[in-house]
Structure prediction request, 468 residues.
Amino acid sequence: MVGTSRETLVELLRKYGQEHVLQFWDELSESQRDALTQQIASLDFEQLDKLHRGPGSQEDWGALADSATPPPAFRLDGSKNRFTADAAHAAADEALKSGQVGAILVAGGQGTRLGFPHPKGMFPVGPVTERTLFQVFADQLLALGRRYGVRVPLFLMTSPATHDETVAYFQEHDNLGLAAEDLHIFCQGTMPALDDQGRLLLAERDRIFLSPDGHGGMLAALAKSGGLAAAKGRGISQFFYFQVDNPLVTIGDRTLLGYHLLANSEMSTLVVAKTDPTERVGNVVSVDGRLHVIEYSDLPLSSAERRNADGSLALWAGSIAVHVLSAEFLQRAAGSAESLPFHLARKQVPYVDASGNQVQPEQPNATKFERFIFDLMPEARNAIVVEGDPTEVFAPVKNASGAEKDTPELARQAIVDRAKRWLAAAGVGVADGVRVELSPFTALDVQSLKSRSLPKQIVTDLYVECES
Ligand code: UTP
Prediction:
């Protein structure tokens, strides 16, 4: 396509009403023209046209919510669970020990709400150590490998927005201790945005605006990068999937992984019980024996407020975007990765106008398109959810300091609070106002902390790190 004449491009673009992307063509250099031509060649204009014309692929969420029932779940109180937690832990230990588990970390998001000028994984989240999110996860992977005598590979998804800096960060930090063959960094795809007339936006005179195609882009990108084949080659049968913003995630969570294995599930999801009907989490529901996630923004209030006889919420399961996916399922699904639906979001997208001026809109001016990984759920056999205690498993860094929820300060506090609870269970007191952070090499969970030799009392801020 490089070297294509302007006339040929105009002909293609005119068919879809997009010829304005060439409006600065005459002032572009040869290499700028080539880059723009390549961008045009990479776009699927038929698909964009369909996305603009109607929400064809969008679910009728209201109808889905009407027939939704609670999902098959392993609850925290355990009384009605099909398997015991001990049996789940034993199954998880077996899979981990035999090196069957790999990790997928999605870190391609732009992190606009946080406003941190680097990939979010480089954000210093450690309350005592200022460890970055990437360090928190890499240390856990190394500690997990040490515990089970294996190596747990990390499949790390970036996007064009985060790729180069992420790669440089890992290179500069000696891969954070991970062996090169255990770190597979792959870049996800992009999608353009459309204005209200269905027209593409120019980010620069020579560049169409593109943004990452959502965490659901992971499926196609992992397969395309050779990651799925590489995982198969080293005997990975289960992937532990998590997002870059949650420092409380326990990679390889034995409860989630164990129930997933015992239930013979192809996709399992860690959820927390919603306390408020309109909580801003995805709702995991069952419809005709299949699991679906209905976003909080798509769930009609009447369904959100439905209650059981005991007053509890009927649709109670809030997803925290932690999954276990079987490799076989991902391989099967990768064949139809392109069929994952796009979700539409109205956003403020800066652009270059017809006179060549950069415009910074104050109101949403365009629609972005993203695929979500949870749309795989209805295709998964025996899908389940596993309930976690929110204070133990979820403290995402989404918003900048000062916001009401999901701020760095709240995440740091949650890390300290959890460490204090685990230390208290191991008989260690922590003086008031003191901040503690636990090294995953010391404790991957509260049980393993109890076997450590620890001080009786901690009186100053401390990173608790001990080898014995
Ligand atoms: P969010 O939906 O919170 O989006 O992503 P974000 O881009 O990180 O933040 P905002 O909305 O711009 O403030 C949830 C998770 O999915 C990943 C993110 O990196 C995060 O781990 N993600 C999101 C991707 O990997 N790719 C995407 O295209 C979008």
